[in-house]
Amino acid sequence: MTSRSPRPRSQRQRLECVVTSVVEKRLGALPVAAEFLRRLDVAGIIDGLCPSAPSAHLTHGQVIEALVANRLTSPMPLFRVGDWARTWAVEEVFGIEAGLLNDDRLARALDAIAPKLEQLAGTVGARAITEFDIDVSRLHWDMTSMSVHGAYPLEDQDDAFPVIKHGHPKDRRPGPEAGPGRARSHRRRRDPGPRQGLRRRCGEVSQVVGTMKDLQKLAGEQEFLLVADSKLVSYANVAALLAARTVFIAPVPAAQVKDGFYAALDLEAATVVDWLPDRDAGKDPAQREVYRVLEDVHTLNGPRKRDPVLSVRRILVHSTGNAAGQQAARTKRLTRAAEDLDKVQRGAGGRYYNTAEKIAARIGVITRTRRVASCLRTEIGEDETGRPTLTWHFDQQVLDREAAADGWYALLTALPPSRPTRARS
């Protein structure tokens, strides 16, 4: 038996691998977006309602899915989407070549779906309700704002579509804007659900009625509850909602119920609500927030004399948590105001407050910044040497009336009355 010695290193076969190029792409949330788009069948719904030409390399549905992914991952101005697709793993996730997402193809897809926007939104919304088991019996209505850039002459815009115009968005950003509404569902599961964007050329308040009709169609035949903020409470909105028998609940604007009305309410006559906030579940019973309610009727007068007066059920709610918070805020304001006023009082006649006019100007600043105009009482005089003096105090009767109104707020609702139950001891 013979043995073979190993070959010298120089005679061994060598395998070389040469890297000629490296391609790096961002993945980010693309797989997540693709999964939700697939579950919502966005491309299938769009292609069913807006079919593309047989010779097209991409369907309209594929293009819109890419645009949705672009908005979610890189919300920049809507151009050069192809450049975004080259740096992101769009081809690997969606199977779309970056070069096909040119501006012309995007414009043709957007033009194709424009006449079908309402139907597309409703169909995708219905699909989301089914796919994610969303409870649409209760919807929370709120407004948002979107700022846009560029020139949008009104004469070049179509009233049938979102109209861009100068406004006053909530985020205080200047420039052209659009104000869509969002209705967020109360969900039974943790799966994400849709937020319905409504496109109407009108103010926040006047959007609500038409929007509710759209949402009722989307929700189908079932009991429907609209939970809104105080912007809902206008004569036109409430009249239309009552006529449509839409059940709603919303806080009454503060300007419509004066503090003096709340201060005159009898808290002892209010009914304790048998409800415990989740945040208080682990607290000692003596430290838990308590809610009490009274009920009366709220009236709304129309803009014209011939408009009938609307009478709507009003729930007057008192929260011990709100009362404690308002009392603490008032104490903080009064304490800071007192510190500022004491400083002026000590300095009256000195270098900085050597005239009555300067003292009065400083008191005006303190009154505004500390919000104590209703209760602050001041008197500017002179001492025996002619130097200005200041005396001040807070009107305790005013403070007592403000404290009596603490914790109260009002809800307007079309919910049918029910017999409240007292909290269990």
From TrEMBL:
Residues 25-114 form the DUF4277 domain. Residues 161-202 are annotated as: Disordered. InterPro entries: DUF4277. It holds the Pfam family DUF4277. PANTHER family: PTHR34614, TRANSPOSASE IS4-LIKE DOMAIN-CONTAINING PROTEIN (PTHR34614:SF2). This is DUF4277 domain-containing protein. It comes from Streptomyces catenulae.
